[in-house]
Design a protein that fits this description.
The protein is built from 13 helices and ten strands. By secondary structure, the protein is α/β, with parallel strands linked by helices. The protein has a single domain, classed as Inosine-uridine Nucleoside N-ribohydrolase, Chain A (Alpha-Beta Complex), CATH 3.90.245.10. It is globular and about 55 Å long. The termini are far apart. The structure holds alpha-D-ribofuranose and calcium ion. The site of alpha-D-ribofuranose has 15 residues, from helix 1, helix 7 and helix 12.
């Protein structure tokens, strides 16, 4: 029995690896993608999502374009990390087959949660604007979902945008504040994603000189030398892929319950995701935080998906 999953995404190189993994897993049914601003403006993240689906022949997966901007703060994007247009690689142009459906991403989340009551996993791997809008539309969303898991925060480690804040939460802190307060999320933050790397040499069948081979290689190595050095890692951190690996296999992450809150005020507190580890607030836990990861299991799962994909999909450019 496969798990239905809706992925809210801002592709994004690490998003791309997460999507390929989820699409390749026989135990996951990707019911659709909702796109959001983040690594690039939503026009580009939507086009990137479509191009990824075209690359691997999955034009059956619906794409619902979502929020253009955060709820309150100004739009901030990360092309300096992910590349021009928000992604690297050798991607085909989108075709009519992946034209976005005529439903806003946030509405799509609500519709799919109702269509799969109690079974749908909502995996959010970009800023949480669509998820917050969906919650505003349908306050019962947490009860309709089997699980809400998002890549975000730096509960017990330094941030990657400010000393306290991780990019997805910092990009739309008000959305993250609402989701953490009301939706009982599982939070997969930099505490565990920083070390979620998968060097291309671990993938049988790579390197391969075609669009799929070149794209996967680019996505596994999208970090510049300064990021590798700062994080003392050997390949790019595949933050989002760790989330989807855990959706497919609950042995990948260890999570614990905590009282959680997000800082949304201007200044250094903006985007801080705070976990009350010592119970000093006296509050009940309202979410779970990933505190440890089995990285070899992660590499075996995602590496295995990519190897099967490379073997299955022949995208060599016709002569
Ligand atoms: O901080 C990492 C997160 O920000 C990832 O989801 C990456 O894709 C970017 O969106
Ligand atoms: Ca992302």
């Amino acid at each position: 029995m496969s798990r239905p999953v809706l992925i809210d995404t801002d592709p994004g190189c690490d998003d791309a690896v997460a999507l390929l993994h989820a699409l390749e897993r026989p135990d996951l049914e990707v019911v659709g993608l909702s796109t959001v601003h983040g690594n690039a403006p939503v026009a580009e993240t939507t086009e990137n999502a479509r191009r990824i689906l075209e690359l691997v022949g999955r034009t059956d997966v619906p794409v619902a374009r979502g929020a253009d901007r955060p709820l309150l703060v100004d739009l901030e994007t990360a092309e300096h990390i992910h590349g021009e247009g928000g992604i690297q690689g050798d991607l085909p142009e989108p075709t009519a087959a992946t034209r976005p459906i005529d439903v806003h991403g946030a509405r799509f989340i609500v519709e799919q949660a109702r269509a799969h009551t109690g079974d749908l996993v909502l995996a959010a791997i970009g800023p949480l604007t669509n998820v917050a809008l969906a919650l505003a539309m349908e306050p019962a969303l947490p009860d309709l979902l089997d699980e809400l898991v998002f890549m975000g925060g730096a509960a017990f480690t330094r941030g990657n945008v400010t000393p306290l804040a991780e990019a997805n939460v910092h990009s739309d802190p008000h959305a993250a504040k609402r989701v953490v307060r009301d939706a009982r999320p599982t939070v997969v933050g930099l505490d565990v994603t920083r070390r979620a790397t998968l060097p291309p040499e671990r993938i049988d069948g790579l390197p391969r000189d075609d669009p799929l081979g070149r794209s996967i290689d680019a996505w596994l190595t999208y970090y510049g030398p300064e990021d590798l050095e700062r994080n003392r890692i050997d390949a790019a951190a595949l933050h989002d892929a760790l989330v989807l690996a855990a959706v497919a296999d609950d042995r990948v992450l260890e999570t614990d319950p905590y009282p959680l809150e997000v800082g949304a005020d201007d200044g250094l507190a903006r985007g801080a995701l705070v976990a009350d580890a010592d119970g000093v607030t006296g509050r009940e836990p309202n979410g779970r935080v990933a505190v440890a990861a089995d990285y070899e299991r992660f590499r075996a799962l995602v590496g295995g998906s990519l190897e099967r994909l490379v073997e299955r999909v022949d995208v060599s450019v016709p002569e």
